[in-house]
Write a structure and sequence with these properties.
Helices cover 35% and strands 27% of the residues. The longest helix is centred in the middle third of the chain and has 12 residues, at 141-152. By secondary structure, the chain is α/β, with parallel strands linked by helices. The relative contact order is 0.13. It has a domain at 8-70: Orthogonal Bundle (434 Repressor (Amino-terminal Domain)), CATH 1.10.260.40. Helix 1 runs parallel beside helix 14, helix 2 packs across helix 3 (30-37) and helix 7 (141-152) packs across helix 14 (315-325).
Length: 350
């Protein structure tokens, strides 16, 4: 599959400009913009400089030298679980990565190919440089992906992971963004502290939302105090170690041992309580109300997206920042149960 060696198209989409908009800004024809994006025309030095100035990047960033990306073989971000697997493809840094298809409810997009007997059969629907990847436990991330695609033309792939696991994937360069929600009203700097401790200082945080995390109980449970309800709970639906919800549960129980089973994701906690095999669980209000459960808030947390400083000028990251700062998107998020988007889109230095 041919991989574009210029990012004019991606930068234009990131700003939601038409080809005519860009042509007017740079002083060339719309046909010339189309030809440059399709690599049917090499821009003059003056045009290349004008494009780079308009996109606030260097000529080298905009027009990558050589065709190395066409010949470099894609690698698995993580191994597929079966001998035959559908996959998506994305460009992260300078690498082309393949992702086994998962979480289809959050990623209702066609796969890019099929891997069978060690051979990749590509369908080549979306160029790898048009795809952004995020590891997050946000149960509303599918809505973010849909709005991102609508507003920018890029694709966002969501991989459900707890904050600890998400940071591991980001550290290894396997995703563009990791989400974490360790910051609370009492400890507002914990997200930044966690990133500095685990990844270093060459990272940036982007505020996604504040949300309520607490105790999900059956709908007929009328408890009003989480601590007393916790003492009466015999079986828990617990998140895995490394998850913010697991930390919240450990604090609620004050170190006491508990009986139950581990599940992955806020929605899974809520479903376990709704189906009756668990008496309670810790999740965000959104998931509890989606399942029709009684919810007791325990703490308010800041959900923030982490990415490397050097990727901040990536047009996909720029498009995400613009979306999170968009007034209509922030209003949409604020209408979700337990979410607060008043600070959504703010950049936080690590």
């Amino acid at each position: 599959m041919k991989i574009s060696t210029n990012r004019v198209h991606a930068h234009r989409l990131a700003r939601n400009w038409s080809q005519a908009d860009l042509a007017k800004r740079v002083g060339i024809s719309r046909a010339a913009v189309s030809a440059i994006e399709g690599e049917r025309l090499s821009p003059s030095v003056a045009t290349a400089l004008a494009l780079a100035e308009e996109f606030e990047c260097s000529v080298e960033e905009l027009f990558r030298p050589g065709k190395a990306s066409e010949t470099s073989a894609p690698q698995w971000a993580w191994a597929p679980r079966t001998q035959s697997s559908r996959y998506w493809e994305a460009e992260v840094g300078s690498r082309r990565l393949l992702y086994p298809v998962e979480a289809v409810s959050m990623n209702p997009v066609p796969h890019d190919g099929i891997w069978e007997d060690g051979i990749c059969r590509e369908r080549a629907l979306v160029p790898p440089e048009m795809t952004l990847t995020i590891a997050t436990c946000d149960p509303a991330a599918g809505l973010l992906a849909a709005e991102f695609a609508r507003a920018s033309g890029f694709r966002l792939l969501v991989f459900p992971r707890n904050g600890g696991r998400a940071l591991e994937l980001l550290q290894k360069g396997l995703v563009h963004i990791a989400a974490l929600h360790r910051s609370t009203r009492e400890h507002p700097e914990r997200n930044a502290e966690t990133v500095r401790e685990r990844l270093g200082r060459d990272f940036q945080l982007l505020h996604a939302a504040k949300w309520q995390e607490g105790m999900a109980l059956p709908s007929d449970n009328s408890s009003r105090v989480a601590a007393s309800a916790a003492r009466r709970t015999e079986c828990w639906a617990a998140r895995e170690p490394g998850a913010g919800a697991r930390e919240c549960l450990d604090e609620l129980l004050e170190g006491r041992r508990f009986a139950g089973r581990e599940v992955q994701g806020h929605a899974s906690v809520a479903e376990a309580v709704r189906s009756g095999w668990a008496g309670a669980g810790i999740c965000v209000r959104f998931s509890a109300e989606e399942a029709g459960l009684h919810f007791l808030p325990i703490r308010t947390e800041s959900l923030e997206f982490c990415f490397s400083v050097r990727s901040q000028r990536d047009p996909r990251i720029q498009a995400l920042i613009r979306l999170l700062r968009d007034r209509s998107y922030r209003r949409l998020v604020s209408e979700l149960p337990g979410y607060d988007a008043r600070q959504t889109g703010e950049l936080i230095s690590v």
